[in-house]
Amino acid sequence: MLPNRLLVATDLDGTLLGHDSYAYEAVLPLLQELQSAGVPIVLATSKTRSEVEQWQARLGLKPPYIVENGSAAVFADGTEAVFGARLPELVAFMADFAGSTTSLIDCPLDEAMRLTGLTELEAKLARNRQYSLPFVLHESALEAVIKEKAASVGLKILRGGRFLHLQGQCDKQLALQRIKAVLDDEAGWIHRVIALGDNQNDLEMLQHAAVAVVMNTEKGHQLKPAGTRTIYTQAMAPEGWVEGLRDALASIE
User: Fold this and answer.
1) What residues have CB less than 8 Å from 5, skipping those under 6 apart?
2) Domain end call among 143, 168, 193
3) What is the model's pLDDT at position 244?
């Protein structure tokens, strides 16, 4: 018997999906168990809406979900709540750093495929961005400079598993708050959140959860959430997702 009144919010790459392989078969039985118990599962990812629509279908999930690092929340009726900046503003900002960065949306398609490990079609979906701009720095010393300049114009940079992400002043937790308010209202109760993630762009979401699950990675555990009960997995994704979520479920009364 699963604890009641739960909501599971989860990152994708390196959390529910294998970081390099994008494998997910190991999570399917637990996903089905959660859905059968009526537990909402909210994908919270840096991926685009086009990408998440495909993953929702593969995993047998329904909206709502979070895209582009919390830049927008997508609901069951297809509407979006937008929290982030628009792409033209981000592209204009990055023009000053064009010689020092590789942008996922502007680089050659074959390079985008190499950087992401995606197929040609999948890479095209990953480049179909509205609210965020993933990029790779050629010189790590520039990261602080770009972050400072971004902050001065109302933007921010978050680190994901593969890229730095330029976006508006938003994050996954901000979008999850909106989704949770809607789901709480529909259900007539307050959901308790279990959040799973592996990198900096997941931190705010994990710190506001009832239980946070930090995934192990090839570089070890990259996060130390403050102010919440935290579980650190031994296995990496996707098996670690099952390990961590099972432990989180057992820890909730």
Assistant:
1) 187, 189, 190, 191, 192
2) 168
3) 98
